[in-house]
Design goal:
Distance between the termini: 46 Å
Number of helices: 3
CATH class: Alpha Beta
CATH topology: Alpha-D-Glucose-1,6-Bisphosphate, Chain A, domain 4
Helix content: 25-40%
InterPro entries: ASHA1/2-like_C, START-like_dom_sf
Family: Belongs to the AHA1 family.
Protein name: Activator of Hsp90 ATPase-like protein
Strand order of the largest sheet: 1-7-6-5-4-3-2
Radius of gyration: 14 Å
Pfam family, one: AHSA1
Structural class: alpha+beta
Largest sheet: 7 strands, antiparallel
Organism: Hoeflea marina
């Protein structure tokens, strides 16, 4: 069994602390994605409210403030990596753990590849751009 990942780099012309808050706080993620009681603390267990897909149980497995957040949910892992570039932020998302031999994983991979690129990450960026610097 080999697994596949979705990896996306997104330059965001905002300070790293603002991007960090948008992906690591309940108010931050609710502003562009879903409601959830997230906290960037290793071992923290939280839920994300995925609407029609229900509540998803997650656990933080790595957290380095302003640099990296990794959490596991269902069969997958989300890794958020932030790097400062000339006062802006390069955000790298890796959504990993897709076994493409599994039809459910293949469906999720196809949907999330499009969803992250065309909807969710652009919404994150536009939410940050709408806030005053």
């Amino acid at each position: 069994m080999s697994t596949q990942s979705i990896t996306i780099d997104l330059p965001i012309n905002r300070p790293r602390n603002e991007v960090w808050d948008a992906i690591t706080t309940p108010g931050g993620i609710a502003g562009w994605w879903v409601a959830g009681n997230i906290a960037p603390v290793v071992g923290h267990r939280f839920t994300l409210d995925m609407g029609n897909w229900g509540l998803v149980e997650c656990v933080v497995i790595e957290a380095t403030p302003l640099e990296r957040l990794v959490y596991a949910f269902a069969d997958w892992k989300l890794s958020w990596i932030l790097a400062e570039e000339d006062g802006a932020t390069r955000l790298t998302l890796e959504h990993s753990g897709f076994n493409l031999d599994n039809p459910r994983h293949q469906l999720a991979f196809d949907a999330m590849s499009k969803g992250w690129r065309e909807s969710l990450l652009p919404r994150l960026a536009s939410t940050l751009y709408a806030e005053p610097a």
